[in-house]
């Protein structure tokens, strides 16, 4: 019998770089909200339950205009996010059923996660306890100083772009976030900024995280140009 799994889908961002009053996850892409696409993919997958984390005050909109409208029956809870991404994740984790063995954490602004990526994530998390969808960079990367002068060049074959889903053994990610919230002020004082879920388990639990190849199409909608690229990806998939 397959272990029970959950997906926490984050849709609480304001999307300031989009230069729009409409949050990026609610912008329309081929007449459907960006958020719809990833939710539908998890709906069609083996994942047992979906927790949708949205901006406080937008819960009812998400329920009516996305979850109910598109019959996303696996969405079990819609919960409000926090002021920072890690607070939103923590709120989402609290809503996940206690008997889930693995938890997927995914950005709602990444509409092109696929069933194959989700399947590959499960295979990897079963073995490694923590894994992240990612892709090797295509360009040479430079490390700059605070004056924007290049100071070093890491080996390109060792540099990856992090994506989502980021997937973890449930007990592992719950403990990492319990510690993160408890030690938040101490970490800030030490200049440590936790920017993704993998970093939380790496920093606080010293847990190695496996990177697995996802897709260069698994983009995050961040700027207006990304919507043009996203439309092209959808055109190809039709």
From TrEMBL:
Gene3D superfamilies reported for this sequence: Spore Coat Polysaccharide Biosynthesis Protein SpsA, Chain A
CDD domains from the UniProt entry: CDP-ME_synthetase
Gene Ontology molecular-function annotations: 2-C-methyl-D-erythritol 4-phosphate cytidylyltransferase activity
Annotated metabolic or biological route of this protein: Isoprenoid biosynthesis; isopentenyl diphosphate biosynthesis via DXP pathway; isopentenyl diphosphate from 1-deoxy-D-xylulose 5-phosphate: step 2/6
Organism domain of life: Bacteria
Site (Transition state stabilizer): 17, 24
EC number from the UniProt entry: 2.7.7.60
InterPro entries: IspD, IspD/TarI, IspD/TarI_cytidylyltransf_bact, Nucleotide-diphossugar_trans
Biological processes annotated in GO: isopentenyl diphosphate biosynthetic process, methylerythritol 4-phosphate pathway
Site positions for Positions MEP for the nucleophilic attack: 156, 220
UniProt KW keywords: Isoprene biosynthesis, Nucleotidyltransferase, Transferase
Pfam family, any one: IspD
Residues forming coiled coils: none
Catalytic activity: 2-C-methyl-D-erythritol 4-phosphate + CTP + H(+) = 4-CDP-2-C-methyl-D-erythritol + diphosphate
Function: Catalyzes the formation of 4-diphosphocytidyl-2-C-methyl-D-erythritol from CTP and 2-C-methyl-D-erythritol 4-phosphate (MEP).
Family per similarity comment: Belongs to the IspD/TarI cytidylyltransferase family. IspD subfamily.
Protein name: 2-C-methyl-D-erythritol 4-phosphate cytidylyltransferase
